[in-house]
Amino acid sequence: MSTTADASRRAGDLLTDLNLWDTVLAQLREEGFSQVQSIKATAERLGVPLAEAKRIVHVSAAWADVRSANDRFHQGLDEAASSSG
After folding, report:
1. Which of 5, 52, 58, 67 is the least crowded, having the fewest Cβ atoms under 10 Å away?
2. Over the range 17-38, which residues count as b (16 or more CB within 10 Å of their CB) and which as e?
């Protein structure tokens, strides 16, 4: 498997506008990159903060099949943090 930097460079070669970024994310996922690696590549390539990169990956069609599970996980973290405070 390639490094995140390699993925970022390849993504730059494919990227002509934001509408194509989902294609890039799908390719990265197909190659075995994790969501975290996809977020990092998105932040590096698009020059956006990590929070924005996370949002872009989260709402992408490439990662839509895990979106509900991720939402439940984050909701559980929020609830745990609220109840422990």
Report:
1. 5
2. eeeebbebbeebbeeebebebb
